[in-house]
Amino acid sequence: MTFKTGHVGLNVTDLDRSKDFYLKVFGFEVFRESDEADRRYALLGLDGDLLLTLWQQSEGRSATDLPGLHHLSFQVPDIEAVHRAETVIRELGATLHHDGVVPHGEGASSGGVFFEDPDGIRLEIFAPSGADTRPAPTAGAPTCGFF
Fold first, then answer.
1. Per its UniProt record, what PANTHER family does this chain match (predicted)?
2. Res 138: pLDDT
3. What is the mean pLDDT of residues 49-68?
């Protein structure tokens, strides 16, 4: 038996705000959505592949001190794509951790940008190489584990 991630479903507080955020930052397409008052959702993806579902079913902000999702990570082909995403993230005024693109750890070339969506869900966009121009923000531990 083999597995690969299908899609990720996230609870959000405001579907329109979250959908706009994910479309702008990730360039996703809307595959389907519902505006029924008690069943609002959007199915998002790229090139025909469903990647993310947003469900308007929550209130407040994502809790980082409770069990559950730590962060959601997306790989892009190169560090230039990470920098383009960082520009959009800054333009949107999203919470950005580590003040920009950083490596995954000491001596690593892979790395990315670590940030939050409008509901406080922690996100990462990374490339397999090219992030080694700055020091790792967390000595002796993976950057993606501590933000």
1. GLYOXALASE_BLEOMYCIN RESISTANCE PROTEIN_DIOXYGENASE, LYASE, PUTATIVE-RELATED-RELATED
2. 86
3. 93
